[in-house]
Design a protein that fits this description.
eight-stranded mixed beta sheet; 37 strands; 822 residues; single chain; alpha/beta
C-alpha cells in the first residue's frame, strides 16, 4: 500500500443523485489523542428532536448510503450520518485507525454534534461493530439498534466469506482496494438490482484518487479473522456489548442474497438478540439500503417503540387430540392410493403409536421445542406421522410447496432456516445439491454409502428405533410456535406464515364447526393443505393418486377410487383439479360412480371457483352440498358459500364468496381512484377496498418479515388480505381480485375478476385475465385469453372472438389477445 496522505475535509460536489447539499456539515472535534479532526456529516438539522438516528456506514461506502433515510425522516426525528475519518469526504488524517479508534472517533463526533437525547443506532456492514461499540459506551442514551448485513463474530467452524478472504490477501489488497477502484466497483456490483450510473458515480465521488482510498484497504486489513489480530480484543468487547443488551429493542434488516454477510451472521445476531424483530428480504443482496426500502421499515419500527403488538393464543384441545381420541380404533387413519386402488394404509391405533415413537425418537436425537423441521415429503402416511410427531414435542414444521420449484423452495428454506430436514430421497438429494439448511433425516433407510454421499444425519427407521423405549417430552403450550407454511408465491416471493398452536387449533375447530364434521365423516383430500387435517379431526383420510404440485393431474377415476377406499363422505379439491375431474368423468366405471353417491359435502378452494364449474361436477356427487370456502394461507376459513347460494347471488362485481363464517369479522379498507386504501375500516355496502379480516384462527406473523407483518396488520389485530372486494346489502362478501392486479384507468380503478369471469363465459374461452396496459392512471383494459384451440398462437384475437368477449363483458376493452397458456 502507498504511504498515507493527509487532506482536509470537504463538502461533496453538487449534483450527486438524491443528495441535498443542505444536509452536509463539516464538524470539527478532538479525537482521543487530542488532535483536532474534521468530519463530513449528513444532518437533517432537526432542533430539539424527540429521537436521533445515528447512521453508521461500512466499507467502502460513505454517508451517501443513508440519503433516503435522511430524506424520509418524519417530523421530530433527527438523522445524522457521519463519514468515518479517512473515508467519504471527511478529513484524510494520514493515520491508521483500527476498530477501537473508530469507536472513539464516533464518540467524538457525536459529542460535538450535541446529541443528548435518546438515540437509535443504524448501521450496515462494518459500521455494525463500530455503532455497537458506541452503543455499549452510551447505554443510557440508547433507545434501540438497527443492523443491516453485518457481523460481530466469525464462527471457527465456518470460513470467512470468500470475498473478504480474497480482498484481505496481501497479493491483491493494495491493487484491489487502494491503487484501483476495484474494491469499490466490486461492492457496487453486489447491488440487486444494478445501480444507475449516477448512483454509482456518487459512491465513487470521494474515492477518485488512490491517495483517498488508503483507508478502504486498511479497513479490509483490520477485519479480525485471526485470534492474534490487533482488533480482536475490540471486536470481542463488541460481542460482549451485544450479549448484554438484554431486552433493548432491535431490528435486523437483512438481504438474504448477500455473498459477504450471509444468513450465518443473521443467525448469530438472532441468538444474541433473541427479542429482535427481523425483516429479511431474500431478493436483496449486500447493499441492503440500496436494494430495498429501509426508510419505511425503520421509521415504522421507531414509531412502534414502546408498544406491544396484539397477540392471540386461544386455548383448545391440542392438534393431535383427534388421533388421541381414536388411539384404540382399528380403522384406517390415512390411505395412500395407487391409481384407483388403495395402497399403503395406517390405522388410527398404528398412527398414534408411530407418532409417539417418532416424536420420542426426535426428542432423544436433540430436536427440541421451538426448533424448526422442514418436511419435504409428499402428502400421505409419512408426512402425517412426521407432522404430528413434531407438533407433539413442540417442534415447528416448515411446509414449503414443491410447486415453487427449485429456486422458490431454496429461497423459502433459506429464509426459514430449519434446524432439521426430513425428506424422501429426491428431496434429500436436492437439499444436498442446493445446500438447503438443516440436518438431513431420510424417510428411507439409505445404505452407508448413500447416506454419506447425501450427507444424511439420520433416518426415520433409526428415529423410530431410538424412540421405542423413550418418554415423550412435555407438550407445547398454546402460545408456542406451531408451523411455518409458505404462500404460493403467485403475487411475489413466497412468504412464511407463522402460526402458534392456539391459532392452528382454532383453525381446525372453525372448519369442524363450519361443516359439522363428526366421527362418521371420511375425507378425500385432493388439496394438499387438507391432506393433513383429517387426523387432527379424528377423521379417516385418503390421498388420491395425483401430483399435488399440478392439481390438474387429478382424474375422476383417481378421485372416485379414493372415495371408494374409505367410503368417503367429504371431498376437498382445488378448482384446477375439479376441471380435470369433469373432463375425465366419462371414464368412470359404475362401481366408482357409486362410491361418490355417499359424498355429502364437496369443497373447493385455492382460487376463485365459478358456479358453472360446481354445476358441471355436481352430477358426479348428486347427494352432496357443494361449497367453496374463501380464505388464504394466513386465515382459513373466512367465508363460505354453497352452489345454491352462488346461484341466488347471481352475477355481480366479482365472485360472491358468501357471508363471513362464525367467529370471523370482515371489514373493508376503502380504495380511492388512485388505488390507495384508507382507514377507518367500513362495512358500508358496495364500497370496494382491501378485504380486512379478524379471527382467532388468523396467522401470528410473517416469518422474518417484520415490516410486511406490520403493514398487513393495520389496524392492530386485523389481517389485510391483499384482496380487493366489497360487502353487499345482505352482508355477503364479493372478491373482485388482488390489490396488485387492479387496473388504474383515467376513470378510476377497475377490478379484474368480474371481467375475467364474463370473458370465460364465452364459448371457446378456457381462461381469461384482465390486465392494465399503459401508465398508472391512464391504463387501458386488455383481456388476455386462452382458447380451446390448442393451435392458436399469441396474437390479437380475431374480430368474432373480440366482439363476443366485448359483448359478454359489457365494458370498454381496448383489445383482446390470445395466448397458448396463462
Amino acid at each position: 500500500m502507498s504511504s498515507r496522505q493527509t487532506a482536509p475535509a470537504t463538502f461533496p460536489p453538487s449534483g450527486l443523485a438524491g443528495l441535498e447539499r443542505s444536509w452536509s456539515r463539516l464538524v470539527s472535534a478532538s479525537d482521543v489523542d487530542g488532535v483536532l479532526r474534521t468530519w463530513h456529516v449528513l444532518d437533517n438539522g432537526v432542533v430539539d428532536p424527540d429521537l436521533t438516528l445515528l447512521c453508521v456506514h461500512g466499507n467502502p461506502t460513505w454517508s451517501y448510503l443513508w440519503r433516503n433515510v435522511v430524506a424520509a425522516a418524519p417530523e421530530g426525528i433527527r438523522v445524522v450520518a457521519p463519514d468515518h475519518l479517512d473515508m467519504g469526504f471527511s478529513e484524510r488524517t494520514g493515520t491508521l485507525r483500527r476498530l477501537r479508534r473508530r469507536i472513539d472517533d464516533l464518540e467524538s463526533v457525536v459529542a460535538e454534534l450535541g446529541i443528548t437525547g435518546p438515540v437509535v443506532t443504524v448501521a450496515h456492514d462494518w459500521g455494525g461493530p463500530i455503532s455497537l461499540g458506541w452503543a455499549g459506551r452510551n447505554r443510557d442514551q440508547l433507545a434501540g439498534i438497527v443492523l443491516m448485513n453485518t457481523a460481530v463474530y466469525q464462527p471457527p467452524s465456518s470460513p470467512a466469506p470468500a470475498l473478504i478472504r480474497i480482498a484481505r490477501s496481501r497479493a491483491v489488497l493494495g491493487t484491489l482496494a487502494e491503487r484501483t477502484l476495484g474494491f469499490v466497483n466490486g461492492t457496487l456490483r453486489l447491488a440487486r438490482p444494478r445501480l444507475s450510473k449516477a448512483v454509482q458515480g456518487a459512491y465513487k465521488a470521494p474515492y477518485r484518487a488512490a491517495g483517498r482510498r488508503t483507508a478502504i484497504a486498511e479497513f479490509v486489513a483490520d477485519i479480525p479473522l485471526e485470534a492474534e489480530h490487533p482488533s480482536m480484543p475490540a471486536l470481542e468487547a463488541v460481542q460482549e456489548t451485544v450479549d448484554d443488551l438484554g431486552d433493548l429493542p432491535a431490528l435486523l434488516i437483512w438481504g438474504g442474497s448477500d455473498p459477504v454477510f450471509s444468513d450465518l451472521y443473521l443467525d448469530d445476531l438472532r441468538e444474541r438478540l433473541p427479542h429482535a424483530d427481523v425483516h429479511r428480504r431474500g431478493e436483496a443482496g449486500h447493499l441492503t439500503p440500496e436494494d430495498i426500502d429501509i426508510a419505511g421499515p425503520i421509521f415504522d419500527w421507531v414509531a412502534d417503540l414502546g408498544s406491544t403488538p396484539e397477540r392471540t393464543s386461544p386455548e383448545s384441545e391440542p392438534l393431535w387430540s383427534g388421533i388421541e381420541r381414536m388411539r384404540d380404533a382399528d380403522i384406517p387413519a390415512v390411505v395412500e392410493m395407487k391409481g384407483a386402488e388403495a395402497g399403503r394404509k395406517i390405522t388410527f391405533a398404528e398412527l398414534a403409536a408411530d407418532v409417539d415413537r417418532v416424536g420420542a425418537g426426535l426428542a432423544a436425537k436433540g430436536v427440541g421445542k421451538g426448533q424448526r423441521v422442514s418436511l419435504l415429503i409428499p402428502p400421505g402416511i409419512d408426512l402425517t406421522v412426521c407432522l404430528y410427531a413434531c407438533w407433539r414435542i413442540g417442534a415447528a414444521p416448515v411446509i414449503v410447496d414443491a410447486g415453487l420449484g427449485a429456486k422458490g423452495m431454496t429461497q423459502a428454506l433459506r429464509s426459514a432456516a430449519p434446524d432439521y430436514l426430513i425428506g424422501v430421497d429426491r428431496a434429500i438429494a436436492a437439499s444436498r445439491l442446493l445446500r438447503w439448511p438443516g440436518k438431513r433425516i431420510s424417510v428411507e433407510n439409505p445404505s452407508t454409502g448413500k447416506a454419506g454421499a447425501l450427507g444424511v444425519w439420520s433416518s426415520l427407521p433409526e428415529i423410530r428405533a431410538v424412540g421405542d423405549a423413550r418418554e415423550l417430552p412435555e407438550p407445547p403450550e398454546a402460545g408456542d410456535p406451531a408451523v411455518v407454511v409458505f404462500t404460493s408465491g403467485a403475487t411475489g416471493p413466497a412468504k412464511g406464515v407463522a402460526y402458534n398452536h392456539g391459532q392452528a387449533q382454532a383453525q381446525r375447530d372453525a372448519l369442524m364447526a363450519l361443516y359439522g364434521i363428526g366421527e362418521a365423516d371420511r375425507l378425500v383430500a385432493a388439496f394438499a393443505p387438507f391432506a393433513l387435517y383429517g387426523p387432527a379431526m379424528g377423521m379417516p383420510s385418503a390421498v388420491p393418486d395425483m401430483d399435488v404440485t399440478r392439481p390438474g393431474t387429478l382424474t375422476a377415476d383417481a378421485l372416485a377410487g379414493a372415495a371408494a377406499a374409505i367410503d368417503a363422505t367429504m371431498v376437498f379439491a382445488s378448482p384446477a383439479a375439479l376441471v380435470n375431474v369433469d373432463k375425465t368423468a366419462g371414464d368412470l366405471t359404475p362401481r366408482l360412480r357409486t362410491a361418490l353417491l355417499e359424498v355429502r359435502l364437496l369443497m373447493s378452494a385455492g382460487a376463485p371457483v365459478s358456479g358453472e364449474l360446481l354445476r358441471r361436477v355436481s352430477h358426479l356427487v348428486p347427494n352432496a352440498e357443494l361449497h367453496t370456502p374463501y380464505g388464504m394461507t394466513e386465515v382459513l376459513p373466512v367465508a363460505d358459500i354453497s352452489l345454491a347460494q352462488i346461484e341466488q347471488a347471481g352475477r355481480g362485481k366479482g365472485v360472491c364468496v358468501g357471508e363471513p363464517v362464525p367467529g370471523v369479522e370482515v371489514l373493508i379498507s376503502p380504495v380511492d381512484d388512485h388505488g390507495e386504501t384508507s382507514l377507518p375500516l367500513v362495512a358500508t355496502p358496495e364500497v370496494s377496498g382491501e378485504i380486512c379480516i379478524r379471527a382467532a384462527h388468523a396467522r401470528d406473523h410473517y416469518d422474518k418479515l417484520w415490516a410486511t407483518t406490520r403493514a398487513a396488520s393495520q389496524p392492530s389485530g386485523w389481517h389485510r388480505s391483499g384482496d380487493i372486494g366489497h360487502l353487499d346489502e345482505s352482508g355477503r362478501l364479493w372478491v373482485e381480485g388482488r390489490m396488485v392486479h387492479i387496473i388504474k384507468t383515467a376513470n378510476g380503478v377497475v377490478t379484474p375478476v368480474a371481467i375475467e369471469h364474463a370473458a370465460e363465459s364465452v364459448t371457446g374461452v378456457a381462461q381469461a385475465a384482465a390486465v392494465g396496459v399503459g401508465p398508472s392512471g391512464t391504463q387501458q383494459v386488455v383481456v388476455v385469453v386462452v382458447t380451446d384451440d390448442p393451435d392458436r398462437s399469441a396474437d390479437l384475437a380475431d374480430i368474432a372472438l373480440t366482439d363476443a368477449i366485448r359483448a359478454a363483458v359489457d365494458f370498454d376493452i381496448a383489445a383482446v389477445l390470445t395466448v397458448p397458456a396463462l
